[in-house]
């Protein structure tokens, strides 16, 4: 499913690998789901920016310890999950600024 979504978006060839919770047979917010990034990229969690399009996904990543960015395209209100993203923007250009900032 993830491979098809990348292909249909025109982004095929821009990413080396796709991380899916299918690999670890766990669902978010299980730690194993977020640990995949550390294992795949051989980086500390503080060196990985976790971007999500859903507020609940940001919360799980934040609880795990990732720096987080919420791509809030629709201007939705923040969910009350006791975890706030490090930054919020309306599109991927805002994410780029977060990563470079």
Please, could you describe this protein's structure?
The chain has 101 residues and is of the alpha/beta class. Helix 3 (55-64) links the parallel strand 1 (50-52) and strand 2 (68-71). A three-stranded parallel beta sheet has the order 1-2-3, with helices on both faces. The radius of gyration is 14 Å and the shape is globular. The protein has helices at 2-8, 31-41, 55-64, 92-100; strands at residues 50-52, 68-71, 87-89. Helices cover 37% and strands 10% of the residues. It has one domain (2-100): Rossmann fold.
The tally of domains stands at: 1
CATH superfamily: HAD superfamily/HAD-like
The helix/strand order is: HHEHEEH
The proportion of residues forming helix, as a percent range, comes to: 25-40%
**Beta fraction:** 5-15%
Instruction: Determine the CATH topology.
Output: Rossmann fold
Name the strands of the widest sheet in spatial order: 1-2-3
> How would you classify the helix and strand content by structural class?
alpha/beta
Number of strands: 3
Mean pLDDT: 92
How many distinct helices? Answer: 4
The CATH architecture category equals 3-Layer(aba) Sandwich
Largest sheet at a glance?
A: 3 strands, parallel
Distance between the termini: 32 Å
| Poorly predicted segments | none
Radius of gyration: 14 Å
General form: globular
At the first level of CATH, what is the class? Alpha Beta
């Amino acid at each position: 499913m993830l491979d098809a979504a990348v292909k249909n978006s025109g982004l095929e060839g821009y990413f080396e690998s796709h991380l899916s919770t299918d690999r670890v047979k766990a669902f978010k917010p299980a730690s194993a789901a977020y640990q995949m990034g550390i294992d795949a990229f051989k980086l500390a969690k503080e060196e990985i920016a976790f971007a999500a399009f859903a507020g609940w996904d940001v919360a799980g990543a934040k609880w795990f310890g990732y720096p987080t960015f919420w791509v809030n395209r629709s201007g939705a209100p923040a969910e009350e999950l006791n975890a706030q993203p490090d930054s919020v923007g309306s599109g991927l250009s805002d994410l780029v600024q977060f990563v470079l900032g």
